[in-house]
Amino acid sequence: MQATAEQPSMIRWYYEGLSAGVYRAIKCADCGKLTFPPTGCCEHCGSWNVEGVELSGEATLLFASHNITPACHPRFEKIAPYVYGHIQLKEGPIAQAIVRGVDPTPEDLQALFEKGPVPVQAATLQMDDLPVIVFDIKA
């Protein structure tokens, strides 16, 4: 997909991918960097000369914390409490997302912290309104 000034089509493309279990970003033809989640232009240099790419879904959880109470958006109230983390995608970008496979307790978060960065895999969680990307801790 080649991006244009029609940002809503880029957003639709991203969410259609999530619904199908496909994780997408944009790659800038000018600076070569990835923007995730995708936007209408490159977040690094501002170029509109971008194209859609698929991501592997492989990543590393850098650190995690519990969510705030109440949840940051009403769509997440049904799944709260949950763990939220900073994840570095295999392809480079760092994303923030829900992390599954660890309980949001101080003890479990401490144990996860002591393990250091851990591998995670992208997954799609279908909410009432939109799908969201989440990451599952690999065993």
UniProtKB/TrEMBL annotation:
Every ChsH2 rubredoxin-like zinc ribbon domain range: 24-47
Classification via Pfam families: OB_ChsH2_C (PF01796), zf-ChsH2 (PF12172)
Top-level lineage group: Bacteria
Protein name as annotated: DUF35 domain-containing protein
InterPro entries from the UniProt entry: ChsH2_C (IPR002878), ChsH2_Znr (IPR022002), NA-bd_OB-fold (IPR012340), Thioester_dehydratase-like (IPR052513)
Domain ChsH2 C-terminal OB-fold: 53-106
